[in-house]
Design goal:
By secondary structure, the chain is α/β, with parallel strands linked by helices. The protein folds into 3 domains: about 1-45; about 80-135, no CATH class; about 150-235, Rossmann fold. It is about 35% helix and about 15% strand. It contains 6 helices and 8 strands. The strands form 3 sheets. Strands 7-6-5-8 form a 4-stranded parallel β-sheet, sandwiched between helices. Strands 1-2 form a two-stranded antiparallel sheet. The longest helix is centred in the first third of the chain and has 40 residues, at about 1-40. Keywords: Membrane, Transmembrane, Transmembrane helix.
Length: about 240
């Protein structure tokens, strides 16, 4: 009876051992099948890659450089104003609906929207308040026959590229030329532009490589053929 019990225990242990071995072999064979199936399909479909996004290199540079001679566009300002017989009003600053209700009035005065001021409603509130705080009296002439040209100058490094793309996309409708600066010895931005960075804005981009900031405005003057004193220049230096 005792020998039967010992034999019975050994039999149970062997059964458990064989079951564990069979599970291990099944897992190994199943894992091999999964790996082989994955290797066959990975060549066809890949949802995730370790490579970061890369711009497609340009066959020819489409942005402007120091070698180019740029002429800023001369744009008429007529489309920005409305002629109401006796008054010429700035379109974006005038309450046009209110003006049209007063067609029978021979002496029309521009009726400004809440955030605009001036005789022709052409002064945004921030400009109007600045003029009020200015001690000397200023007589504003206008409207201008042609729009002012606006230049946006930025000294760029590799940490500013994302913010730069956002700024250009937001300001593209009002800025005539984006002047992107790198210091001598740095070519990160140049390589990015050559690889398609800001491709859709290249016609409005001037790339300059300078030794120091003292050379900046002389290079800008040499690059732009019709730069005028009245041109507005916004300068951002992140250094």
């Amino acid at each position: 009876m005792r020998q039967f019990r010992i034999f019975h225990k050994r039999l149970i242990l062997w059964v458990i051992f064989c079951f564990q071995v069979s599970l291990l072999l099944a897992y190994l064979f199943l894992n091999v099948d999964i790996i082989s199936a994955t290797s066959r399909t990975s060549k066809r479909v890949s949802f995730f890659t370790n490579n970061s996004f890369k711009y497609v290199p340009l066959k020819k540079n489409t942005y402007h450089t120091y070698k180019h001679r740029i002429y800023l566009k001369k744009q008429s300002s007529n489309s920005e104003f409305i002629d109401f017989n006796t008054s010429i009003c700035f379109r974006n600053g005038t309450d046009i609906k209110l003006m049209l209700h007063k067609q029978n009035n021979d002496k029309w005065n521009c009726k400004c929207l809440p955030t605009f001021h001036g005789n022709n409603c052409g002064q945004p509130e921030i400009i109007w308040r600045a003029l009020l705080n200015f001690r000397k009296s200023i007589k504003i002439k206008g409207p201008r026959k042609y729009k002012r040209n606006i230049l946006f100058v930025v000294i760029v490094d590799k940490f500013l590229t994302t913010a730069l793309e956002i700024m250009i996309s937001e300001l593209n409708s009002v800025v005539d030329l984006f002047i992107l600066i790198e210091y001598s010895g740095e070519v990160f931005l140049k390589n990015q532009l050559n690889n398609g960075f800001l491709r859709q804005y290249h016609k409005e981009v001037l790339y300059l490589n300078i030794v120091n900031e003292n050379d900046l405005f002389s290079k800008i003057q040499n690059s732009i053929g019709n730069l005028k004193q009245e041109t507005l220049i916004a300068f951002i230096n992140e250094k």
